[in-house]
Design a protein that fits this description.
The structure holds two protein chains of two kinds. By secondary structure, chain A is mainly alpha-helical. Chain A contains eight helices and two strands. In chain A, strand 1 and strand 2 form a beta hairpin. The longest helix of chain A is centred in the last third of the chain and has 27 residues. Chain B has two helices and four strands; from the N terminus they run βαββαβ. A two-stranded antiparallel ribbon of chain B has the order 1-4. A two-stranded antiparallel ribbon of chain B has the order 2-3. Classes of the chains: A mainly alpha, B alpha+beta. At the A-B interface, helix 3, helix 4 and helix 8 of A face helix 1 and helix 2 of B.
C-alpha cells in the first residue's frame, strides 16, 4: 500500500523496537518472556484508571510494529479485511477463545507448580504446534513453574504476533487491532466505565 | 458557477475499534478517539483527505459528501 506516515512523529512511534527486543531476548533466554506481562497490564491500567485506550492509541508496541512494517515499509496490501473477520461475533468469539487458551496456559503452569506435570521446554505455536526451545532455558535456574509460565506466555505472544503479521501482509497494516483480544477487552471496559 | 462538493469522514460507532490509527494520520486533528470507546471526526476541521479511511482496520470510516 501507499505509505501513510503519522502526521507528527512522537517517541512512542518507536516502541516497535520493544517488540523486536522482546522476541529476540526470548529466543536466547525464555525468562525474558515474563516482561510480556507489561503488555498485559498496561492496557488495563489505562482502561480502568483513566477510561481510555491510550495504550492501543499510542503505546502498543505491536501496533507500532505493524504500522511500521505495513504502512512505512510498505509490506501491507492495504486491503480491508472481509466483513466476517471485522464483525462483532468474530471479535468477541476470538476474545473468548483467546481467554480460554490463556486460562489453559495458567492451568498448565499450576500443574507444573504442583508437580503433577513436568516442565515442557517448548514453544507452542497456534496452540498446537510444539517447537523445541530448550536452548533458551538453563534447567534449575528458576522454579519449573516460573519457566513454564515463561514458555506459555512467549507462545501466546509469538502466536498472536504471527497472526498480526499475516493479517498486516494480507490486509491493512493494523488489521490485528480489529480482532485484538486486549483491545476488545479494554474497549468494553472503557464503554462500561464511561457509561456508553 | 462551479459547485465544489466537500467530502468529510463519517465514523460508525458500531464497528469502530478505537485503535487510534485515524487520529495518528489526520493532518488536521479532526479525527479523535473519545474515551477509548469510539471516534469522532470534527466536520469543521475535516478536509476529506481520506487518510483515516485508508488506515482504519475495521472499515468504520467512510468518506461522504458533506451537506
Amino acid at each position: 500500500m501507499k505509505p501513510i506516515q503519522p502526521i507528527k512523529k512522537n517517541w512512542y512511534h518507536y516502541l516497535w523496537i520493544w517488540s523486536v527486543f522482546y522476541f529476540a531476548m526470548g529466543f536466547f533466554n525464555i525468562l525474558f518472556a515474563w516482561l510480556g506481562l507489561i503488555s498485559f497490564c498496561l492496557p488495563f491500567i489505562f482502561a480502568f484508571g483513566y477510561g481510555t485506550k491510550d495504550f492501543c492509541n499510542r503505546y502498543c508496541d505491536r501496533g507500532q510494529l505493524l504500522r511500521v512494517l505495513g504502512g512505512q515499509v510498505g509490506l501491507s496490501k492495504g486491503v480491508l479485511m472481509p466483513s466476517w473477520i471485522r464483525s462483532s461475533w468474530f471479535r468477541y468469539g476470538f476474545l473468548a477463545f483467546f481467554m480460554t487458551m490463556f486460562g489453559q496456559m495458567l492451568y498448565t503452569t499450576y500443574l507444573v507448580a504442583s508437580g503433577i506435570k513436568e516442565l515442557s521446554e517448548t514453544v507452542t505455536l497456534f496452540w498446537s504446534i510444539r517447537v523445541p526451545w530448550e536452548w533458551a532455558y538453563t534447567a534449575g535456574s528458576v522454579e519449573p513453574w516460573q519457566a513454564q509460565f515463561a514458555f506459555g506466555l512467549y507462545s501466546l505472544m509469538l502466536t498472536s504476533a504471527i497472526i498480526g503479521i499475516v493479517l498486516m501482509l494480507l490486509y491493512k497494516p493494523r488489521s490485528w487491532c480489529a480482532v485484538c483480544p486486549m483491545g476488545t477487552m479494554t474497549q468494553m471496559i472503557c464503554k462500561l466505565r464511561n457509561k456508553e | 458557477m462551479v459547485k465544489v462538493k466537500r467530502r468529510r469522514a463519517v465514523i460508525s460507532r458500531d464497528i469502530y475499534v478505537a485503535c487510534g490509527s485515524c487520529e495518528d494520520v489526520c493532518p488536521k486533528g479532526a479525527a479523535r478517539v473519545i474515551r477509548g470507546s469510539y471516534a469522532e471526526a470534527d466536520a469543521s476541521l475535516c478536509i476529506g483527505c481520506g487518510r483515516c479511511e485508508m488506515v482504519c482496520p475495521a472499515g468504520a470510516i467512510t468518506m461522504e459528501v458533506a451537506e
